[in-house]
Amino acid sequence: MGNNNREVLEKIAKEVFGAKTPEEIEEAIKRLIKIFV
Amino acid sequence: MTTAEELRAERMKLMDDVINNREPERVPIVSSCSTWAYYYKGYKPIDGIRSNEVVKEVSRAIYTDFYWDIIDIGPVVAFHPDIFAVAGGGTFTFTEEGLHQTNPGAIMVMEPEEYPELIKDPYEFLLTKILPRRYKLFAPEKSFQEKYDGIRKILEIQERMAEKTRIHDEIAEGEFGLFNTVGGLLIAPVDFILDYLRDFRGIMQDIKRRPEMVREAGMALVRYSLDSVAGVEPSPGKSVLIPMHIPTFLNPRDFEKVYWPSFKVLIDALVEKGLNVKCAFERKYEHLFDYLQELPKNKIVAVVEDDDIRLFKKKLGHIMAIQGGISTQALYYSSKQECLDIVKGLIDDLAPGGGFAFSTNKSMISATDGNPENLRAVNEFVREYAVYK
Hints:
The complex is a heterodimer.
Chain A (H helix, E strand, L loop, with lengths): L4 H11 L6 H15 L1
Chain B lengths: L3 H16 L10 E2 L4 H5 L4 H6 L1 H14 L4 E2 L9 H7 L4 E3 L5 E3 L12 H6 L1 H13 L9 H32 L3 E2 L1 E4 L3 H21 L1 H10 L1 H6 L11 E6 L7 H21 L4 E5 L7 H4 L7 E5 L4 H8 L4 E6 L1 H6 L2 H15 L5 E5 L11 H14 L4
Parallel strand pairs in B: 1-2, 2-5, 6-7, 7-8, 8-9, 9-10, 10-11
Antiparallel strand pairs in B: 3-4
């Protein structure tokens, strides 16, 4: 519960986009945000 | 016999010549034939959403029954209703036929006092403030697992939609040798605020009451806009498409103050990267021609919607390529001969010197965006008549 949106996107960034480094994870989270906005 | 690959290469050169303001071998005919194609074949867009076989049938039909060189927009539905159902909200609602339209009241999810937060960190603001307001899926009361499962499901639906685009592109380019000129799409920063955050009434109030905030937010969103085409590489004949929404409603003073600064930075950054830009100047832009003179030369394709296209070419044709021609209204309501007369006049006035591509003035979306007999006649006419050498 709560505003855990970043944590959810981080998990998907790693599992779906294969992001590993902090930079890759941040880029993947941005891609996911853009999908929804 | 010319292969599809050779045809595609010829057509790529046609478009490359147009963008560079050279005279091509002939005026290319650009398809903006979107969901109209489903009605033409007796379907509705929802049928394409549900069936890849319908996408194949409709794509083959419009490329067999009508002559085209270039594709701007194909008959693939951009949005799947299930995405918004799973997410529990969104800016669109859908007709029974599968066409999306703006969901009244769903866009204004940002308060005017929140501009500083948007300016400080656009992505963080969108993640923490906008997504929870727009979608039930991102609301605080949803569990981690519910969010995770919902997002995974939406990604799967998106992949199915991407598959339809691939199917269309393989048919268009692989079987018919057409050249897809659009390499990517982005929304200009201030249009993004209009389309996704503040809606028309909200942003028009902001432009009057806090123009500096709108301007600054536009500048802060340039990177966000550029990220939409981060993976797009320069390629001859290709452009990134920017559909422009709010400038037609702004007087020159407000345009200069709030829209132009971020738009100019955006265009310069795209051109710096080696990309061409296709600006869809929706509605009318004559009152802003002085600003458009400052855009980079031979890097812009202007899609002219409701402006006088002859005046557009006269004033800006030395700067940018012009795309447009017959209106979808004329294509539907006028007789075949009237359409042919309109198109002959356009070719006579606009083709000399090059830098012109023929198309409808806007995307063909609904059944009333064109009469098939008229469309067939004008495209065949341009193919035979608009030849340079």
